[in-house]
Amino acid sequence: MNAPDRLAILPVAAVICCSLSASQEASAAQEGAPAPRISAGPVETTTEVLLASDGRPAGRGRVPAGTSDAARLMWEQMVGAVGAPDRGASEPRPRAFDLQFSARFRRDGEGTQEGRVRLRYLEAGPGFVSGAILENDGSIRSVQMRGLTEGDRLGYWFRKYRGSGITDGWVKLTQRDYKEDRQEVDSYAAISYDFARLIEPESCRVVALEERTVKPSTDLAAGWLQFVGDAGIQLPPNDLDGRREGRVRTLRALSAELVWLELSTPDFRLVQESLQRRERLASEKQVKRVVFGLDPKTHRPQLVVVAPTAEAALQVPGTTLVQTTDWFELGQGQANSRFPGKFLVYETAREAGAPRGLGFDPTPRADFFTLDGCALDAPLTPADFAPAD
Question: 290 in helix, strand or coil?
């Protein structure tokens, strides 16, 4: 299968995506939260005060009063497990990373595409991002990028170095003809927000935290996962590598070993949502349900379920399941964080055999396998996201 020339628009941003504004950080400071390490916010911000379950403003990482001891402990264990105990003492600075993945994308009507991708990101101002398709030797095949033009306006560019359709320098993605290309690059920025929050969950505003207990009568063998006092979800039958045959241990078996924590927060952005300004701002105000399936020994997320709204059942159209396993350390000095080696993304679809008529697709929409050469504290500047020969 051929490597794609552009990265697919993925629902990975439904994993763990926050967009924090300067006003939110000021609110966190008033709430006594530790100094944030991620200092940049979105292009546009809202001024409405979001209240947590205790009636006080929801702060970054602030656990609301009245949260159960069990839920508070699980949250603290998860935060500590994906970072370092002294991370809160670090000086705030924009998040900047340079990641490489072996990726496999499945697009409706286009089959499966595989390739090696490089994602670079600097969380400053509107957020700078570039997504490159790499050859096996690490050289660049093509790249899409978002940065600032000379007039400090958001700019989008594309360049292809190898293969058919090589461009004569950088192509500026302007006007209506390149609308989908610009949206695709915006999706890279959303994916990057996801990764940043996955390794620093305390950067999210906490509206509520609740321990979730699997209902004793739930039929995990049939893939039905249901929590006490809540509607269930239909798990896919795949094994942990995303294959449908020769499975060793299914996601259903993995689910039986996990403990569950639900976070209510608006700080998750779903890529499949409209990227239009009005719809995007409405989404940023919407409190979403995020359920972490945690390894009881390491306390790191193994499965994450994200539902678009806190007022509905857990599995509705738009709900996404992401497997985030094989966590590892990137080395000393790597932003005091750990990073998952696998991302497998499943989308909700109509399923005739599911109790509620909805289930996750049996095949993941995308597989990401982290490669060597990643950096969570890359020395990037805005100049790295501008066209240069």
Answer: strand
pLDDT score recorded for residue 56: 96
Q: Is the dihedral of CA 278, 284, 285, 291 positive or negative?
A: positive
User: What's the pLDDT score for residue 188?
Assistant: 78
Residue whose token pair is 């990373």: 97
Please tell me the predicted confidence (pLDDT) of residue 107. Answer: 66
SS (HEC) of 206-269: CCEEEEECECCCCCHHHCEECECCCCCEECCCCECCCCCCCCCCEHHHHHCCCEEEEEEECCCC
Going by C-alpha positions, the residue among 287, 87, 270 that lies closest to residue 205 is 287
The span from the CA of 152 to the CA of 284, in Å, is: 24
311, 9, 6, 278: which is closest to 159 by C-alpha?
Answer: 6
To which residue do tokens 């039905």 refer? 224
The residue behind tokens 């790249």 is 143
What is the residue type of 364? P
Asked if residues 144 and 130 have their Cβ atoms less than 8 Å apart, the reply is: yes
pLDDT value at position 336? 56
Element (H, E) at 189: helix 179-198
Domain count, the chain: 1
Residues 6+ apart with CB under 8 A from 17: 190, 191, 193, 194, 197, 267, 268, 269, 270
**Cα 31 to Cα 34, 41, 52, 59, 129, distances in angstroms:** 9, 19, 12, 6, 31
Low-confidence ranges of the chain (pLDDT < 50): 1-4, 7-46, 89, 91-92, 273-275, 277-278, 335
Write out pLDDT tens, residues 289-320: 999 999 999 999 999 998 888 888 899 888 88
Query: Which pair of structure tokens corresponds to residue 169?
Result: 């320098």
Task: Please report, in angstroms and rounded to a whole number, the separation of the first and last CA atoms in the chain.
Answer: 30
| Site of tokens 């678009």 | 308
Domain ranges, residue 210: 1-389
